[in-house]
Amino acid sequence: MVNVQTQIHINRPRAEVAEYAANPDNAPQWYVNIHSSQRLTSGPVAAGSRVAFTAKFLGRELSYTYEFVEYVPGEKLVMRTAQGPFPMQTTYTWTDDDGGTRMSLGNTGSPSGFSRLAGIFMAPMIRRETRKDLRKLKSILEGGH
Question: CATH number of the domain that 114 lies in?
Fold first, then answer.
């Protein structure tokens, strides 16, 4: 089992941070490993929305689909993928924090195609990658592209 939680302070209003981060079209801009995202459902993002992502992880191209299972604009987004060797749930939360926003990004999953031992090694890598992702998001939103 992998359970990785990371967070960052972004010096922008919560509504702005949440709207940008929750928009799957923006994912390739701030996720270091995601190359593309494609919406599989039309309309605004909501519970039941599905998005296909292509990413590079451990030197391999991975394609996977996330389904949005819970979305409270400006507060919380929960996405889940069931297929592939590493079923994962990703949770974003946003809270007001000292004039800006604290964004938390959580990843939990159970590696099935990998050994349980791989999960132990993957957690620090996932933590390192999500920290990079949050720093990139912060840089974009604070205007430091």
Answer: 3.30.530.20
